[in-house]
Design brief:
Layout lengths: L14 E8 L5 H9 L15 E7 L2 E7 L14 H9 L10 E7 L6 H14 L7 E6 L9 H8 L1 H9 L4 E3 L9 H16 L9 H47 L5 H14 L7 E8 L5 H9 L15 E7 L2 E7 L14 H9 L10 E7 L6 H14 L7 E6 L9 H8 L1 H9 L4 E3 L9 H11 L1
Parallel strand pairs: 1-3, 1-4, 4-5, 5-6, 7-9, 7-10, 10-11, 11-12
Antiparallel strand pairs: 2-3, 8-9
Helix pairs in contact: 7-8, 7-12
């Protein structure tokens, strides 16, 4: 199909509906812009958090392009949040009555491994076996080919990529998003899409209305439960504020017994307006959780400075940093993350002992443990067990001082954190309840957004 698409007579569609699918950072949004010949999708540092639909008139026909959020190419489907799976299925309804083609975006500049083959296969199964009839591989990073052909690349890559090409009935196309002015690459792509439609007798991928109805019903139920959880969390915060105000009132009353009733009342009102909760002059907190959960990055966001090293290397031993933030001293301990795939019995004894010593790194002791949980992956029953085992090392009382800190806040897209909690299942809900409904979301890609730290400190005060 790559060589001479013009040899085969095909239908010229007045309207083309296509969905861009694939892993994160594969080049889907950029490809959408190249296809539409306009900058309609946002590209760069921010990922596509929810499906976006754009349309343009290209070569005399209407193109409707759906840019679907990418999947994490290192995570099996079992580790993908339930909401994300549902949203992936709902992509089909974004271009009614249904897409004529799925462009499965694969970058040329990285190897297509056996693990990636499995993840692609798992995601395609969510759409049903019939989806392969309408799928074409769209290779991005065409400039990386250099002097070789795409066929040479396919043959040199191994069985995983060859399997994918065969699964798509040898349908593929190469695009170079750095040469958007090269209109011929889009013209050729549209010819190949015409051929796919012709091969499928003019049909499109039909959306299973029953499946969509079930998903939409589930999401409505989740939204209702999420709103109840949000209200409950707000009520708990208000109750705590009321208790603190009551304590303050009593304290002020004791101190000012010698003052006249009028002056005492005026003074109390003045103090209550200025201070509704305890503001700690020093906050001592410990970041705990699995490896690569975003603890070090969260520490930097909280301290509003790059004090912990982030990137390729993991935190090997506890590190303590402190800064003055909003007029008070913050002491942050970044503890080494545990292996989320290993039960406690498989953890070296030395690691267990070091984990127990973390509270001693901020004497006289931490006021809060921030249990870091990334939003971009599912919180499974196995992870629940591993969290529970590690918390037992610190003793039952540790839960009184623990708050869940959700990282990867940008992955929420259009949903609330409460919708994420309610859609994830019993394991995550158990964790939130264990922490007495105490949680906070942070987006470490928006370190300049100081309000997220201000709100976190308010919750710690409470």
């Amino acid at each position: 199909m790559e060589n001479n698409p013009e040899e085969k007579e095909s239908i010229t569609l007045p309207e083309v509906r296509l969905i861009l699918i694939g892993g994160r950072w594969a080049g889907k949004s950029s490809s959408g812009n190249t296809i539409l010949r306009r900058e309609r999708f946002e590209c760069g540092q921010t990922r596509t958090a929810q499906s976006e639909v754009r349309h343009e008139i290209v070569e005399g026909r209407k193109l409707i392009v759906v840019d679907a959020p990418g999947w994490k190419s290192s995570l099996s489907l079992t580790h993908i949040p339930e909401w994300n799976k549902q949203q992936f299925k709902l992509n089909l309804s974004r271009c009614p009555p249904g897409p004529q083609v799925f462009l499965l975006v694969i970058p040329i500049d990285s190897a297509f491994s056996v693990a990636q083959k499995r993840i692609v296969e798992e995601h395609m199964k969510l759409l049903g076996e019939g989806v392969w009839r309408y799928t074409m591989v769209l290779f991005t990073c065409g400039d990386y080919l250099g002097g070789k052909t795409i066929e040479q690349h396919i043959e040199s890559e191994g069985d995983a990529l060859k399997w994918l090409i065969e699964r798509c009935k040898n349908r593929y196309h190469v695009i170079n998003n750095k040469e958007k002015s090269n209109s011929s690459q889009v013209t050729l792509l549209l010819q190949k899409i015409d051929e796919i439609v012709s091969d499928n007798n003019g049909s499109y991928y039909e959306v299973d209305e029953q499946t969509l109805t079930i998903i939409e019903k589930k999401q409505r139920e989740v939204a209702e439960r999420a709103e109840k959880r949000r209200r409950r969390a707000e009520e708990q915060r208000q109750q705590m504020t009321t208790l603190i105000q009551g304590d303050l009132c009593r304290a002020l009353g004791d101190v000012q017994l010698v003052v006249t009733e009028k002056r005492r009342s005026e003074k109390m009102e003045s103090n209550l307006e200025e201070k509704e909760s305890i503001t700690l002059p020093e906050v001592r907190l410990i970041l705990i959780g699995g490896r690569w959960a975003g603890k070090s990055s969260s520490g930097n966001t909280i301290l509003r400075k790059e004090r912990f090293e982030c990137g390729r290397t993991r935190t090997a031993q506890s590190e303590v940093r402190h800064e003055i933030v909003e007029g008070r001293k913050l002491i942050v301990v970044d503890a080494p993350g545990w292996n989320s795939s290993l039960s406690l019995k498989d953890i070296p004894e030395g690691d267990k002992q070091r984990f127990k010593l973390n509270p001693s790194r901020c004497p006289p002791g931490p006021q809060v443990f921030l249990l870091v949980i990334p939003i971009d992956s599912a919180f499974s029953v196995a992870q629940k067990r591993i969290v529970e085992e590690h918390m037992k090392l610190l003793g039952e009382r540790v839960w009184r001082y623990t708050m869940v800190l959700f990282t990867c806040g940008d992955y929420l897209g259009g949903k609330t954190i409460e919708q994420h909690i309610e859609s994830e299942g019993d394991a995550l809900k158990w964790l939130i309840e264990r922490c007495k409904n105490s949680y906070h979301v942070i987006n470490n890609k928006e370190k300049s957004n100081s309000s997220q730290v201000t709100l976190l400190l308010q919750k710690i005060d409470e």
